[in-house]
Automatic annotation (TrEMBL):
<dbReference type="GO" id="GO:0009432">
    <property type="term" value="P:SOS response"/>
</dbReference>
<dbReference type="InterPro" id="IPR027417">
    <property type="entry name" value="P-loop_NTPase"/>
</dbReference>
<dbReference type="InterPro" id="IPR042174">
    <property type="entry name" value="RecF_2"/>
</dbReference>
<keyword id="KW-0742">SOS response</keyword>
<comment type="function">
    <text>The RecF protein is involved in DNA metabolism; it is required for DNA replication and normal SOS inducibility. RecF binds preferentially to single-stranded, linear DNA. It also seems to bind ATP.</text>
</comment>
<dbReference type="GO" id="GO:0003697">
    <property type="term" value="F:single-stranded DNA binding"/>
</dbReference>
<dbReference type="GO" id="GO:0006260">
    <property type="term" value="P:DNA replication"/>
</dbReference>
<keyword id="KW-0067">ATP-binding</keyword>
<feature type="binding site">
    <location>
        <begin position="30"/>
        <end position="37"/>
    </location>
    <ligand>
        <name>ATP</name>
    </ligand>
</feature>
<dbReference type="InterPro" id="IPR018078">
    <property type="entry name" value="DNA-binding_RecF_CS"/>
</dbReference>
<keyword id="KW-0227">DNA damage</keyword>
<dbReference type="GO" id="GO:0005524">
    <property type="term" value="F:ATP binding"/>
</dbReference>
<keyword id="KW-0547">Nucleotide-binding</keyword>
<dbReference type="InterPro" id="IPR000595">
    <property type="entry name" value="cNMP-bd_dom"/>
</dbReference>
<dbReference type="GO" id="GO:0005737">
    <property type="term" value="C:cytoplasm"/>
</dbReference>
<keyword id="KW-0238">DNA-binding</keyword>
<protein>
    <recommendedName>
        <fullName>DNA replication and repair protein RecF</fullName>
    </recommendedName>
</protein>
């Protein structure tokens, strides 16, 4: 699969932009702050129905404008599809495919997959468990719409349960029947989510090991361990055991919303003891595992977005990624960089012939 054309109106720093891409390799080059990353974010937006960087849709509207639109043509071996996203301040965001609305945005997730590799991917390792859950959930949701529906329902019921716990404190009275109803729903949905998360890790660990060994060039033992409170013999009893604590703390202390994915290197916590280089290799291997899982599950290669990797990664890891591009491991790839000479030199070394787009002052031109 590849994106053939992209059109932007009032998206971030672009008032109006129309681009046609190579179905193989595209490099977007411009000074920092010129807007090259915004082009990648537009592609990401059309895949995941949201920005990779700005969670609030209104933050993606160009200054002093009321709306933005993103339009693209996606091509694969079976079809050519036109996707349009439109958002106006104060209105509901809309997505259309071939001029037809989706009844739910969730129907779009997984149709046009992308994988984004950025300098900030180490946050998956360093930051909170919520970041790690979101990372793995975003992959599984693209592969399994039932999982996405169950996850949305779980979070909705969790929010309602927490609101009920707060209301008990104000009223000075606990509605145990209501808590039991919430517990029943959260137990049922939580078990389904737990099984899917566990299955995903078990299925994709070997590809992660292979990618880490390749990217790092080291024979280091790395592990991903899925930790969940649901990984016990009698989950229902455990959930009920937490009710008293939940009433006192006014929040739900047990459930798959407390899950974490633990990362180890040589049996030590990567977050605490891993070097910057080891953490970078680990995060890249996670993203390559994501690519492989989506490719196998959806039966098409995702679009690969590489943001600012030449500036932030060392030459060894850059060369490993470029060698994969050279060998055809990916289909369509986008790379951003700030220095044209560096871009051309590295790609020439690997005999890669990209389309190069020069970005300056919100204008984009194809380099001759």
């Amino acid at each position: 699969m590849h994106i053939e054309k992209l059109g932007l109106i009032n998206f971030k720093n672009y008032e109006s932009l129309s681009l046609t891409f190579s179905d193989k390799l595209n490099c977007i080059v411009g000074k920092n702050g010129s807007g090259k990353t915004n082009i990648l974010d537009a592609i990401y937006f059309l895949s995941m129905t949201k920005s990779a960087h700005n969670p609030m849709d209104n933050q993606n509207i160009k200054f002093d404008q009321e709306y933005f639109s993103i339009k693209a043509t996606f091509v694969n071996s079976k079809a050519t599809d036109t996707v349009v996203c439109y958002f106006k301040e104060g209105e509901k965001k809309s997505f259309k495919i071939n001029k037809e609305d989706y009844s739910k945005l969730s129907e779009h997730i997984g149709r046009f997959p992308v994988v984004l590799i950025t300098p900030y991917d180490s946050d998956i390792i360093r930051e909170s468990s919520e970041i790690r859950r979101k990372f793995f959930d975003s992959i599984i949701c693209q592969l399994d719409h039932d999982y996405m529906i169950n996850l949305v329902r779980y979070n909705k019921n969790l929010k309602q349960r927490n609101s009920a716990l707060k209301s008990f404190s104000k009223a000075g009275k606990v509605n145990y029947d209501l808590l039991e109803n919430y517990n029943h729903v959260l137990l049922d949905l939580g078990l389904k989510i737990f099984k899917k998360r566990k299955s995903f890790i078990d299925t994709n660990l070997n590809s992660f090991y292979e990618y880490y060994a390749f990217i790092s060039g080291e024979n280091e033992k790395v592990e991903i361990v899925y930790g969940s409170q649901f990984d016990v013999a009698d989950v229902g009893k455990k959930l009920n055991d937490y009710v008293k604590k939940d009433i006192v703390t006014e929040r739900s202390n047990f459930g798959i919303h407390k899950d974490d994915f633990h990362f180890y290197i040589e049996q030590n916590q990567l977050k605490k003891y891993g070097s910057q280089g080891q953490q970078k290799s680990f995060s890249i291997a996670l993203k390559l595992m994501q690519f492989k899982a989506l490719e196998m599950g959806l039966k098409l290669k995702p679009i690969l977005l590489l943001d600012d990797i030449f500036d932030k990664l060392d030459s060894t890891r850059i060369n490993k990624l470029l060698s994969m591009i050279k060998e055809g491991k990916f289909h369509q790839v986008f790379i951003t960089d700030a220095i044209i000479d560096r871009t051309e030199s590295l790609l020439k070394e690997f005999e890669l012939e990209p389309n190069i787009y020069l970005v300056d002052n919100s204008k984009v031109e194809l380099k001759e």
